[in-house]
Amino acid sequence: MKTRQTHSFTARRMLSHIGTDSNFRVLILVFLTVGGSSFAQVTLSAQTQTTSAAPASGAPVTITLQDALQRARLNDPQYRSAVTDLGLAREDRVQARAGLLPNLNYNNSFIYTQGTGPLPVNCASPTAGCPTTRFIANNGVHEYISQADVHQALSLTNVADYRRSAAALAQARAKAEIATRGLVVTVTQSYYGLVVAQRKYSTAQRAAAEAARFLDVSQKLENGGEVAHADVVKARIQVQQQQRDLQEAQLGMERSRLDLAVLLFPDFNQDFAVVDDLQTPEPLPTFAEVEASGKKNNPDLRAALAGFEVANHDVAAAWGGLLPALSVDYFYGIDSNQFAIRTNGVRNVGYSAVASLQIPIFSWGSDRSKLKQAELRRDQAHVELTFAQRQLLSHLRQFYSEAETARSEMESLASSAELAADSMRLTTLRYQAGESTVLEVVDAQNTLTQARNAYDDGQARFRVAVANLQTLTGTF
User: What is the DSSP letter of 131?
Assistant: First the structure.
C-alpha cells in the first residue's frame, strides 16, 4: 500500500542504520503500520540500539530539552541582545563612577607667538612693562608647557548619573533574566511542538493503516455478499482522507523541525533527533508558594522598579543643571620660555591650582525643559511599575490555573485514548459480525485519532504552562 511506503524522516534514518537485518526491518514496519507503542518511542529505541554501530561523523545529533536551551542561548538574537545590553550597562556604570573620581592627565604643548621686534628706546627691558610678543596673553615668543593635571568635577548631575547607572544596571540585569525565561518558553514550545508533531505523524500512520485494513475487510465482505457496495465506497473515502491527513501530519512535523533548527543551530542543521520525555507530569506546588516565589523572583517587577529608580535619578540629574557646579584643577610641571628645569638659576618646575564655580544664569529655558522631560518620564515609570504589580498577580493566577487544569486533564485524556482504542476494536468486530454499520466504524477510527492527538497535545500543554509559570517564579 502507498501508506505503508510512506515513512518519516526519522524512520528512514532508522532503517538505513539497521542495514541488512531484514527481521528487524520488518518489526519496525509492523510497528509503524499497525500500532503498538508510540512512533516516537520506537524511533528513540531504534536510535539507541543503532547509535553505537553508526559512524560518529554521520550520526544525527540527539538533543534533550536542556541541550536545546543551551544551544538557543548561543544563537538566539533577542537573548544575545539582552546579554549585550547588560554588558553595556556594566560599562556605563564604570564610566559614571570614573566621573566622580579625580582624573590625571599629562599635557605637553609648545606655543610660538610672533614677537614685537627690537624694543623701543624708551623700553630698556621687558621688565619695564614693554611686551615682547604681539599677544598679551602669551608671555614670550617661545612657551613650553609640560604639566600634570589633576582634575576633579563636583556636581549634583555627576552624582545622579552614577546612581542612575547603578539602577540601569539592575534594570538591564532584570531584562536579561526576562529574556532568559522567555527563551525557555520559546524553546519549550518549539521542542515539544516537534515531539507532538512526530507523535501525530505516528498516529496518522496507524490511522491510515487501519483505514486500509478496514477497506480490505469491507471488500471481502462485499465479495461474500454480506455488505453493500456503499460500505466499500465509504471505506475508500476514509482511506483517502487518512492519506491526506498523513501528508498534513508529515508537513507539520517538517515545519516543526525547521522552526526548532532555526533556534538551535547557527548553520541551520536539520539532521538531529529530539528526546521524547513527555511523561506523567509532576505535582504542582500550592498557589501560595507560587505567589510568594513570584513576588520575590519576578524579573518583570524588578525591571519596572529599577526603571522607576532610573527615572528618579534622571530628575535629580536635571536639577543638577540648575545648580552651581564646582571643578578643581591642580597643575604641576613646566610653563616656561625655555624647556629646562632651571633657567638662570631659577627653578622652572612648579605648581598652580584653579578652582571654578559655574553658576547657571540663563539658558533660554532648556534646563527647565530637561527637568520637565525627566519628571514626565518619572511619572510614566511609576505607572508602569504599578501596572507590573497588577499584571504579576493576574498572570500568576492565569498561568497557575492553566498548569493545574492541564495536569488534571491528563488522566482523563489517557483514559479517553484507551477507551477509543477499545471502541474501535469492538466496533470493527461487530461490523464483521454484521452488528454495526460502516459509519460507526469510521466514527470510531476518527475518535481514536482525535483522542490520541488530544492526549499528546495535553502533555505538551502542561510543559508549556509550567514554562510560562517559570517566567514569573523561576525554577521550581
Answer: -
Query: What sign results for the dihedral spanned by CA atoms 105, 316, 314, 309?
Result: positive
Residue matched to cell numbers 507560587: 290
* Angle between the N-to-C axes of helices 9-18 and 22-34, in degrees from 0 to 180, rounded to the nearest 10: 160
CA–CA gap between residue 251 and residue 244 (Å, rounded): 11
- Residues 129-167 have pLDDT tens digits of 676 776 767 777 888 889 899 999 888 888 999 999 999
Query: How many CA atoms are closer than 13 Å to the CA of 320, on its beta-carbon side?
Result: 18
Q: Do residues 65 and 191 lie in contact, with contact meaning Cβ atoms separated by under 8 Å?
A: yes
Query: In sequence order, what are the residues at sequence separation of 6 or more whose Cβ sits closer than 8 angstroms to the Cβ of residue 61?
Result: 269, 271, 272, 273
Q: What is the mean pLDDT of the chain?
A: 83
What digits encode the pLDDT tens for the residues 273-287?
A: 999 988 767 778 888
> Alpha-carbon distance 259 to 187, whole Å?
10
Cα separations in angstroms, 270 against 48, 187, 249, 281: 19, 16, 18, 29
Q: 405-413 — which CB contacts under 8 Å span 24+ positions?
A: 406/281, 406/458, 406/461, 406/462, 406/465, 407/281, 407/283, 407/284, 407/462, 409/458, 410/280, 410/281, 410/455, 410/458, 410/459, 410/462, 413/451, 413/454, 413/455, 413/458
Beta strand 61-63 with 272-274 is parallel
Specify whether the CB–CB gap between 149 and 106 falls below 8 A.
Answer: yes
Q: How far apart are CA 76 and CA 382, in angstroms?
A: 31
Residue 88, classed as helix, strand or coil, is helix
CA 172/CA 162 separation, integer angstroms: 15
Higher pLDDT, 16 or 324: 324
Rounded CA-CA distance 269/271 in Å is 6
Query: Residue 454: in which H helix or E strand, if any?
Result: helix 438-473
- pLDDT of 16 strictly over 70: no
Q: Is 105 helix (H, G, I), strand (E, B) or coil?
A: strand
Q: What does the pLDDT average to over 75-93?
A: 92
Q: What is the grid cell recorded at 171? A: 534594570
Question: Could you tell me the sign of the dihedral formed by the alpha carbons of 160, 166, 168, 171, in that order?
Answer: negative
pLDDT band at residue 120, thresholds of 50, 70 and 90? low
Distance of CA 364 to the CA centre of its chain: 45
DSSP H or E stretch at residue 167: helix 156-223
CA 308, CA 378: separation in Å to the nearest integer?
6
pLDDT at residue 83, rounded to an integer: 92
Closest CA to 260 of 63, 458, 398: 63
